[in-house]
Specification:
165 residues; alpha+beta; four-stranded antiparallel beta sheet; 23% strand
Length: 165
């Protein structure tokens, strides 16, 4: 095991650099045990690393017939301010729901959603959208009625006929 530890770099070149990942084909090791500090099997490591110890994992590699004990350590701590939410919890947001997606549409209706025919979207309070897990369907811009962006004529090919208006 000490030979494995000697091969690992103590630090990486930059803060954004990440350690190289093993491909799934080259390793068959699996985590079979995950212990948090204070549990049986972490006492010696807790004495060694103190409060910096986050957890201990035991990995087993059936192909190489090896067991690896790994530790997760806290190496830095600093104040952090979470970003402001995109929307206020009571703000009405637009949701894109496909016509054939009847199950989602029914859930939106049941949560109090309303159809906006001009924007062609469902409207619902943001906190209810989050509760339904539909954050990925939020529409930031109003939907067009025609389904196609309005042509400005700037990107028209030279040989194309002039747009009729």
């Amino acid at each position: 095991m000490t030979s494995v530890l000697r091969e690992l770099p103590l630090s990486y070149p930059s803060a954004r650099a990440t350690p190289p990942r093993r491909s799934r084909e080259s390793s068959t090791s699996r985590v079979r045990l995950h212990l948090t500090q204070g549990q049986k099997g972490t006492k010696q490591l807790l004495a060694r690393y103190g409060d910096h110890l986050i957890c201990v994992r035991y990995r087993y590699d059936a192909q190489r017939k090896k067991r690896f004990k790994t530790v997760e350590l806290l190496v830095a701590e600093c104040d952090w301010q979470p970003p402001r939410p995109r929307f206020a919890h009571d703000q009405i947001v637009g949701l894109r729901v496909a016509f054939v997606d009847v199950a989602v549409r029914d859930r939106v209706k049941q949560a109090g959603g309303t159809w906006n025919p001009e924007r062609r979207i469902w409207q619902l309070r943001y906190d209810r959208v989050v509760a339904l897990g539909l954050n990925g369907r939020i529409v930031d811009e109003p939907a067009s009625n025609s389904g196609c962006p309005r042509s400005s004529g700037k990107n028209v090919h030279a040989d194309a006929p002039a747009p009729s208006r």
